Each structure stands twice: as structure tokens, then as C-alpha cells.
Amino acid sequence: xxxxxxxxxxxxxxxxxxxxxxxxxxxxxxxxxxxxxxxxxxxxxxxxxxxxxxxxxxxxxxxxxxxxxxxxxxxxxxxxxxxxxxxxxxxxxxxxxxxxxxxxxxxxxxxxxxxxxxxxxxxxxxxxxxxxxxxxxxxxxxxxxxxxxxxxxxxxxxxxxxxxxxxxxxxxxxxxxxxxxxxxxxxxxxxxxxxxxxxxxxxxxxxxxxxxxxxxxxxxxxxxxxxxxxxxxxxxxxxxxxxxxxxxxxxxxxxxxxxxxxxxxxxxx
Length: 269
Description:
Blueprint (H helix, E strand, L loop, with lengths): L6 H16 L4 H5 L6 H14 L2 E2 L5 E2 L3 E6 L1 H7 L3 H18 L9 E6 L8 E8 L4 E2 L40 E6 L4 E3 L3 E6 L6 E2 L10 E5 L4 E5 L6 E3 L2 E3 L1 E3 L5 E4 L2 E8 L1
Parallel strand pairs: 3-4, 9-10
Antiparallel strand pairs: 1-2, 3-5, 5-6, 7-8, 7-17, 9-11, 11-12, 12-15, 13-14, 13-16, 16-17
Helix pairs in contact: 1-3, 1-5, 3-5
């Protein structure tokens, strides 16, 4: 008798443990001795994904892509130097688990490690949600149709990429818009439908190696009609054309400054 799919989560856990062993020269083993262990967190994340499945049109299964891990104040302070590395490993392993189950997520798998006031040492809490970039969607929301990249289509009512909008080409010119950011050294970053997080952390979609930029610094939301830039509470703020902004709709030619990096917003038909 074959145990079949039952072995799949185990293999993800085994790979996760193996990667942890090599991380920061075994520092994880010392940090987690007698307190919460990362494998327990990953187990809980897998259970949360299972518990919040939603069936989409076409029979696909949508599961949460954002997982917030609350640790006790004591565990959180001990873990602080390794939190970013652990969040990256948890996100990678959860993405592997979701892939093996052939489930769908909207965008990237994101893991955030927070301080959970009131939690006893060794205790933790996992909160899972479907995160679309601009807002948290109820996990039972019907009609989400994220393709393989997570940005192929938005929630119901979002215009498709080729429909006319704020940056659309004149009628008869086709849908060949080229919406992108161009850095001062000439590098080009095309924008996709949906949300793009800019930052220097592993959870950013557009990563910039600039110490003046926060790990999750700003977000661009493109709905097919316009692009809205939102600062995500960054340490140094976000500037557009020299003015500090919290959220603003971009116009072609706008200059965005994050840290010491300047990006020009360009739209070509």
C-alpha cells in the first residue's frame, strides 16, 4: 500500500531542516534550543494553507500567500539577527509545499516575523491571508484568477492588460504598451499587471541593492489603467519629482527617488 502524497510535506520539511543546518553556521540550533523551532512554524503554515483553501473557477485551488508569524517577545528578541534569513527559508519551503500540492497563490509567498505581545516563550501564532498587494482579500473571495506568475489577472473587475486605460495606446494601435521604470544607470524594470513591491529585501519583487532603501519600501499597483505608487512606511521615505509622497498616481516622466536610487517612470505605446 502506497502512502503516496503523504510523503510530500515530509520531503519539504526535510529539505527545510537541511537548509537550516547550513544557515549561519548552525546558529539556528543554538537560538532555538528549548524554544520554538522553525519546523513547527513551517508545519503550522502548511496547516493554515490547508485550512484556507478556496476553489476557483476552473477547479484550481487558491491558498494564502502571506503568512505573519508572531513570536513571543523573548523568542523574537533572540531571533532578531536571523529573522530575515528564516523568513526567506520559510517562504521558499512554503512555496515548494504549495507547488507540490498543485495549489495556486496570488503573487509571491511572503513571510513576515513579528513580535507577539502576550505570547509565552516557546509559543507562536501563524496568521494566513490572501494578499494581492493593495489589500488583503478574504480567502473565500471567488473569481481570483492568478496565472503562474500571480499577476496575469487581478480580481473581478480589473481590466485586462490590453484594455484601454490611463496609459492605453490610441485605438487601432494594438496593446503594445511598454510600462517600465528606468534607473539612472540605464537598467530597465518592466511593470506587470497587479502589484510590485520595491525594496532591498528578499520579499520584494523588484530588489534594489541600496542601503537607503527599506526591505519593503514601496509598492506599485498597475490595474491596466494607471500605476499608483504607495510608500510602505519606509524609513527614509519615497519622493516623486522631489516631493515626499505616501501614495500617488504616476505620470510618464515622473522621477521616483528611493534612498540614493532614482527611477524614471516611462510609458511607450
